[in-house]
Design a protein that fits this description.
The chain is mainly α. Helices cover 39% and strands 0% of the residues. It folds into 2 domains: 105 residues, no CATH class; 95 residues, Pectate Lyase C-like (3 Solenoid), CATH 2.160.20. The protein binds iron/sulfur cluster (SF4).
């Protein structure tokens, strides 16, 4: 029963830019790179942000050198800060709250990311004791998102993250053991946490149930690789070739990771992740 609720929570964590005051386009410090054509200091609106908080080059971001904007995903933290924490008062009309609003946004973003991972963990077939601990953690994190701005800014995010990380690790071990032994009937995949596989050729590899937490897979070739049951939390997938790869049951994969990778219509993704439009448009 709880897994259905958790599935809904995970699948509904989506940004709604129409309800946000362009916080990702304003609050964050962005350094010019191949992902973002200009330097943009923190707490400064991007010159492409219009009065109505829409981006004037929205349909053309990648060709104009703003690829990073098509990768970013706040999971809905932006609208929560805009509409709930600050009750619909925008930083344009209420400059007195702007600094606080911009500081709260990255805190909310981190809480939303943790909620996404914990909710995903609850969708798996796990032990009752683990389910209870994850459920309590999810309730606690959701409660934190309802704090007021000052309370959010006073949170110690390192202390918030520690129990979440421990539970996600426990879930990962449990599920990869189960999948290996009872579903795939293979030896559990190896642990390659934080490995540097930048540009590595892993084309067509069977990597089921491998632990790739925090792995550097930038521009690696995972074309047609089998990544089912692989823990990819924090893995760097920028320009990773996942065309034809099977990520349908990869664990703790995010929309941002997938937006930054190179896939195609043959790439199999978890239900809560959408294939990016730029995969299909070829831009
Ligand atoms: S280019 Fe558009 S989407 Fe990117 S930061 Fe600027 S206004 Fe936002």
């Amino acid at each position: 029963m709880y897994s259905e609720t958790a599935k809904n929570i995970r699948e509904n964590l989506k940004a709604d830019c129409s309800k946000c005051f362009g916080l990702c386009c304003t609050a964050l410090n962005i350094v010019a790179s191949s992902d973002f054509a200009i330097n943009k200091p923190a707490e400064t609106p991007c010159p492409n942000l219009q009065q109505d908080f829409r981006c004037k080059i929205h349909t053309d971001l990648r060709v104009q050198g703003f690829k990073g904007c098509t990768v970013f995903d706040c999971l809905g933290a932006g609208q929560k800060v805009s509409q709930y924490t600050f009750k619909g008062r925008s930083w344009r009309e209420h400059s007195e709250v702007s600094k606080k609003m911009f500081s709260v946004f990255p805190v909310m973003e981190q809480l939303y990311e943790m909620i996404a991972f914990v909710a995903e963990a609850l969708t798996y077939k796990i032990s009752n004791s683990l389910r209870v601990k994850l459920s309590e953690q999810l309730d606690q994190l959701q409660g934190l998102t309802n704090l007021d701005a000052d309370q959010l800014l006073a949170l110690d995010m390192i202390s918030c993250r520690q129990p979440v990380n421990a539970l996600l690790l426990e879930t990962s071990e449990y599920i990869r053991n189960e999948l290996s032994a009872n579903v795939f009937k293979i030896k559990k995949g190896k642990q390659y946490r934080g490995v540097d596989w930048v540009g590595k050729n892993l084309k067509g590899k069977d990597m089921r149930t491998t632990d790739l937490r925090g792995a550097y897979l930038i521009a690696a070739d995972l074309h047609n690789a089998d990544l089912r049951g692989v823990d990819l939390i924090g893995a760097d997938l920028r320009d990773t070739n996942v065309r034809g790869a099977n990520l349908s049951t990869s664990m703790f994969l995010t929309q941002m990771q997938i937006n930054s990778a190179k896939g195609n219509s043959e790439t199999k993704l978890p239900t809560y992740i959408q294939p990016p439009t730029h995969w299909l448009s070829g831009k």
